[in-house]
Amino acid sequence: MFTTFFSNPEQYAYVCRLNGSSLYVFQIQRNSSLWESVEYSSFAVGPESDKYRLSVSGFSGDTGDALAAPAHPFRISNGMQFTCADQDNDNSGGHCWNGNSGWWFNLCARSSLTTDEAACWNAYTNVVVEDVIFSRMLVKLHQ
Ligand SMILES: [Ca+2]
After folding, report:
1. What's the gap in Å between 47 CA and the centre of ligand 1?
2. Prior bond to 108 cis, omega within 30?
3. Which of 61, 87, 94, 141 sits most deeply, having the most CB atoms within 10 A of its CB?
């Protein structure tokens, strides 16, 4: 998990500085121990004034696009502002935040890699399966 990465406000700024990087890769390990990876050729996080809005495109990978696939529009994270314990920016009448860190929740999401207890990455169905036991994010910078 990169919970710590998203739990420190100064790290948000670091993510913003990485905007325009050539490739973002999420590597995900399921509780079956299998690893999967997804890539986004464009990954941007908006400024604090826009509550770190997510913008991704250019998906490829060996599992589905849980951030932007249109199968279940109300769960798309792409275009959403960041929600965490003290910032409810999701489209739920409640608060999608659960666990100990935040995510780009909509109503709510099919993905969340920042929580220690209920991590998920599910692009194919509307059922949230919390089967991610480890994940990491890699960034390839422009030359
Ligand atoms: Ca809400």
Report:
1. 20
2. yes
3. 61
